[in-house]
């Protein structure tokens, strides 16, 4: 069973620390996934326009509201956030990823819109509709810039975080500012075909020792320190078992912490297709980019 842990955000609203992610869920799959997740008891959903699955998500929600006794919209936490500290130029055809030229594999970055501009737009959203606002993929310097300009501290920063990328400096910074961290890609790589951390020998050993699945071990690790995590699965049995939580002993947490001594980041927009010619993290793979976060 889930421990049902919730944390109060700086917005005053509560976020369940074990949520459900919906990216890379094929049409058809995700309506079932959202329904199964809500049926299993998840009450925190990660949704985004860029996942291009809104109609299917809506189908899952509709079924859940009709069939799960007592379930109401206000029971479900959905964060409104800036997805990346990067603005794309708006083109006439309103493409989510406007390209520099027909047939190119590079997006057009809008150098006229800063993260402060976008944050101000979020701050001004009607409070009757949007309770908690946050960001995603922001490094400490990006967070500091928007706080300095608006004095409004994001409730949440959603970032890639797993044992190979523990993000210790960001964790420390966020704690000092009362910014909650949500981990995406808790199982590691999600795009480049490397084995997931579910296959990592250390994770498997600990899972076996405590009679848990590797996924349950990774989800427990992600929540140590009060952070939240949004595993994605479109497999009903995994949706359910990921929600059955386990606690890790301090000694096992320490062993898992060692995995990230040489960190490995997977989500680097300069390596995406189409690529974003921007240095966000200061990673080696971003060295030859022409843009920085403004
Ligand atoms: N803000 C951002 O920029 C950003 C970026 C990436 C992701 N996200 C969010 O974070 C969510 C999760 O991250 P992610 O998509 O990178 O994926 P993830 O949750 O790290 O991993 C998903 C993969 O793990 C598999 N899986 C799930 N539970 C499993 C289990 N118990 N045993 C074995 N395999 C299991 C899933 O397979 P099946 O689905 O086939 O079961 C899928 O292939 C996304 O869906 C999205 O909502 C946000």
UniProtKB/TrEMBL annotation:
InterPro entries: AKR, NAD(P)_OxRdtase_dom_sf, NADP_OxRdtase_dom. The keyword DNA-binding does not apply. It is an enzyme of class 1 (oxidoreductase). Transmembrane segments: none annotated. Keywords: Oxidoreductase. Residues 79-260 form the NADP-dependent oxidoreductase domain. Gene3D superfamilies: NADP-dependent oxidoreductase domain. The keyword Disulfide bond does not apply. GO terms for molecular function: alcohol dehydrogenase (NADP+) activity. Its EC number is 1.1.1.2. It comes from the Eukaryota. PANTHER family: ALDO/KETO REDUCTASE. This is Alcohol dehydrogenase (NADP(+)).
């Amino acid at each position: 069973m889930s421990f049902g842990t919730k944390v109060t955000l700086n917005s005053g609203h509560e976020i369940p620390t074990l949520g459900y992610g919906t990216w890379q869920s094929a049409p058809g799959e995700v309506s079932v996934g959202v329904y199964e997740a809500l049926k299993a008891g998840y009450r925190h959903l990660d949704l985004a326009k860029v996942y291009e699955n809104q109609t299917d998500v809506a189908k899952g929600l509709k079924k859940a509201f009709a069939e799960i006794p007592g379930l109401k919209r206000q029971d479900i936490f959905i964060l409104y956030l800036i997805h990346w500290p990067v603005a794309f130029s708006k083109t006439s055809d309103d493409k989510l990823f406007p390209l520099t030229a027909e047939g190119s594999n590079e997006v057009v970055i809008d150098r006229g819109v800063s993260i402060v501009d976008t944050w101000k737009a979020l701050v001004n959203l009607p409070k009757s509709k949007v309770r908690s606002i946050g960001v995603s993929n922001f490094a400490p310097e990006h967070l500091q810039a928007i706080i300095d300009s608006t004095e409004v501290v994001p409730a949440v920063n959603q970032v890639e975080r797993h044992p190979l990328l523990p993000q210790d400096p960001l964790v420390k910074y966020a704690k000092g500012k009362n910014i909650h961290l949500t981990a995406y890609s808790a199982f590691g790589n999600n795009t480049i075909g490397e084995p997931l951390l579910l296959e990592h020998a250390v994770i498997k050993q600990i899972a076996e020792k405590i009679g848990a699945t590797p996924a349950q071990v990774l989800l427990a690790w992600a929540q140590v320190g009060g952070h939240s995590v949004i595993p994605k699965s479109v497999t009903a049995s995994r949706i359910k078992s990921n929600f059955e939580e386990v606690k890790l002993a301090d000694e096992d947490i320490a062993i898992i912490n060692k995995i990230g001594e040489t960190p490995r980041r997977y989500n680097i927009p300069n390596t995406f297709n189409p690529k974003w010619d921007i240095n966000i993290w200061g990673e080696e793979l971003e060295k030859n980019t022409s843009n920085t976060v403004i």
